[in-house]
Amino acid sequence: MSIVLRRATLGVAFLSLIDFSPAARAAEGEGWDWMVAPYLWAASIGTDVNADAPPAGTDSPFFSDIIDKIDGVFMARLEGQGDHFGAFTDVVFLSLADDKDHRLSHTESDLDAWLIDAAGVWSPDDDRARGLDLFAGLRYVDVDLAVQVDPVNPLFDTATIGTNKSYSDLMLGARYTWAFSERWGLTLRGDGSFGDTEGTWSASAMAQYRTSNGGWFFGYRYLSVELQTGDSKTELTLSGPAIGYGFSF
Description:
Blueprint: E1 3-7, E2 11-12, E3 15-17, E4 33-36, E5 38-41, E6 43-51, E7 62-63, E8 69-81, E9 85-101, E10 105-122, E11 131-151, E12 159-179, E13 184-195, E14 199-211, E15 214-229, E16 232-248
Parallel strand pairs: 1-7
Antiparallel strand pairs: 1-6, 2-6, 3-5, 4-8, 4-16, 5-16, 6-16, 8-9, 9-10, 10-11, 11-12, 12-13, 13-14, 14-15, 15-16
């Protein structure tokens, strides 16, 4: 028998840094370009937990809408790109918490999650502003999730389901940038990782409008992380539209 703890998706907007191909790049041989891009991501956040040993006294193996409230969000990215080689670091932190009353139980849930990417980039094309980029590196995930289930029936004890563990994966990915005109472009990105986790993957599609010192971008981004710890499995997903401005220097 398995128990499923799920939080219904929640729309939020927050400030972060996105994976965005530099909108203004130096000519070949003039050193590395750097990009930071604050943006708003109207993301829906979903958290699922499956456990093989459900707490006694619960009315169903399924609990819906476990976590509703965001305590804090932080994301940051730094990327540098040369003629054919580059590197980037991504840091994502999420903090969620909530409590719920169900027919035969009460739940209190807390989730803190860190996702850190560090990768090298290789570009076979001479033009930094367009074409294919391949990247490889490390994806580090740290999750602290606790769901306390308190049955209404006093004959049953309070139980806690969750995980507190760190994972390290090999990450591989690619992105491709089309320049439709001097100002307009489109970047598609996809990546996945494997190792300690059950697998993670993300995808994004971002249109770009270039300016003299950077560029506007808007599009859609999706991220999914699946983790296994003993008798429980945790899946975290974020998805939604994004818009922002990338500063190049």
